[in-house]
Design brief:
This protein starts with a helix and ends with a helix. Helix content is 45%, strand content 11%. The protein has 17 helices and 14 strands.
């Protein structure tokens, strides 16, 4: 335990309200591919009964018409967050007919003769921009890569925490600037320690050969249809997933919010010759939003992002400039194939404790070499994290994953103990202890369990994924039907979102060229 962390922890314990860590807001964004009974990606449009993917608060699409994204509100109680996500699943299953939701982060078997269909958001400028952006992603990184799914965890500390923490730190900045700098400290440490998330919650050690059929990607064969890493945890977060040569050369500083915003905007405005061959326009139609390193902020793939809810038409970086960091988005959690909604309460409670630890721990500024060390640790953990001989790099020195992980767990447990002291929060210590068991026994991790089940069943990754998808659909069919209030809430939002999209499209709009020019000027 560092002296800084010890001092901050003691200050919180001695404050007038030792329960100030209880009640942070938590939200989930969960992606799932729609597949047919054979486990194949569907070619159907986004079901109209789910509402408008452009304007719905709860159900939208990500890259493809077939890639659903379920969004919960920000809620203080972990059980309520999961309950809301479960409600969305029930509602969706009731409205997608015979289709299934794919349960793994790595996609189902992909038909190489048929392109993955881009998501469509209607004829408005904002809708067309979203589709153009996705077309650009497909050109730059390949559409198969965009079929990878995950679950994003959004978190903010309780409002009551900030004035007390600011006072403890004897900080003279505005509460807005203090909160932003504290969240940036959290982000830096999450980058340093985020390999732990891949080890604990990685659930993508295998994939279909159809994901990359025409190239050698250096991954062993499991069977005729499956590739795998014997000690892999999260191939989704490896070089196979959300990476590219251009992205690896984009340096986005995490040392301050101002530097972060400046670097992102610089990448959005800097030409990239590698993308010239795709062109900006073809037959008068946009192929991508720009020929620059990034089309928009969201193209930058990072396991963690500072976020603020943007106003209509506002860019993410402009929102951050306007009001500072509102919450943190964690993007490195795989879908847990054994949880009906892809995540469980233990994971949510552990993530909350771990993120608070990341913020309270000493968080030095990161150099370029520091950043490279963290990314190497992430990539190597994704590929080899359960190997008993696997070593991480800590300040240039080798250290075993188990030793370092146990150090982090001891400190995270202290946060969990504080959260549990408040009568409104419980089971945080239990959530940390559950993860300690995974460090003690790598064979108990989700990634190891998947490979064990593949071996036991003799099934390919695709067939095993289909089996689990069928089981989870059956699970939701056995639940008590949504009560009238919950069902009406989701049905009403679907209906109102369709009306909102029509209103947007009916309103007067400038030419798309003018709209895009104004957007990037804002």
């Amino acid at each position: 335990m560092s002296k800084i962390f010890e001092k901050r922890l003691r200050s919180i314990i001695e404050s007038d309200d030792s329960g100030i860590l209880c009640g942070g807001l938590k939200g989930l964004e969960k992606e799932s591919l729609r597949v047919n009974k054979l486990g194949e990606l569907v070619s159907t449009d986004h079901p109209i009964a789910l509402g408008s993917a452009l304007t719905s608060k709860y159900i939208t699409t990500d890259f493809s018409e077939a890639l659903l994204e379920f969004i919960t509100p920000a809620i203080s109680n972990a059980s309520d967050v999961l309950g809301f996500l479960s409600d969305i699943h029930q509602f969706a299953y009731k409205n997608i007919n015979e289709e299934l939701l794919w349960v793994s982060s790595m996609p189902c078997s992909l038909d190489q003769q048929r392109e993955i269909p881009l998501a469509s958001y209607g004829i408005s400028n904002v809708g067309r921009m979203k589709t153009i952006y996705r077309n650009g992603l497909g050109l730059r990184y390949g559409r198969n890569m965009q079929a990878i799914a995950g679950i994003h965890f959004n978190y903010s500390l309780p409002e009551k925490f900030w004035p007390i923490f600011k006072k403890n730190e004897n900080n003279q900045d505005s509460i807005e600037d203090f909160r932003s700098s504290s969240y940036m400290a959290m982000i830096r440490n999450f980058k340093r320690y985020g390999w732990l998330i891949l080890y604990l919650f990685g659930a993508s050690p295998a994939l279909c050969k159809s994901f990359s059929p025409n190239s050698s990607i250096g991954i062993p064969e499991y069977d005729n249809d499956t590739l795998y890493q014997p000690y892999g945890t999260s191939l989704r977060m490896s070089d196979l997933g959300y990476t590219s040569e251009v992205q690896s050369n984009i340096n986005i500083s995490l040392n301050s919010l101002d530097e972060y915003v400046h670097n992102l905007r610089d990448a959005i405005s800097t030409p990239e010759s590698a993308y010239n061959n795709y062109g900006l326009l073809r037959d008068g139609e946009y192929q991508q939003l720009s020929l620059n390193k990034l089309q928009i902020e969201n193209e930058y793939y990072s396991p963690v992002r500072p976020k603020r809810v943007a106003l209509s038409g506002e860019r993410p970086t402009s929102a951050l400039e306007r009001g500072g960091i509102e919450y943190i988005e964690i993007r490195s959690i795989d879908l847990n194939t054994y949880d009906p909604v892809g995540i469980n309460q233990n994971t949510i409670r552990f993530m909350e404790s771990f993120l608070i630890y990341c913020m309270l721990e000493d968080s030095p500024m990161m150099s370029l070499s520091d950043d490279r060390e963290t990314m190497k640790n992430h990539t190597n953990t994704a590929n080899f994290g359960r190997d008993p001989s696997f070593l991480l790099s800590k300040d240039g020195q080798e250290i075993s994953l188990k030793v370092w992980a146990m150090e982090l767990m001891k400190n995270t447990l202290k946060i969990a103990e504080l959260i549990d002291q408040n009568g409104e929060c419980s089971d945080y210590v239990a959530s940390v202890n559950a993860q300690v068991k995974l460090i003690e026994d790598p064979n108990a991790t989700p990634s190891a369990r998947i490979l064990h089940e593949l071996n036991n069943t003799g099934l390919s990754f695709a067939d095993y994924g289909l089996l689990l998808a069928e089981k989870q659909k059956n699970y939701f069919s056995t639940l008590t039907p949504l009560n009238v209030e919950k069902y009406d809430l989701l049905k009403r939002e679907a209906h109102e979102s369709l009306t909102k999209q029509l209103d947007i499209e009916a309103a007067g709009q400038p030419p798309l060229d003018v709209y895009l020019e104004n957007y990037f000027k804002s």
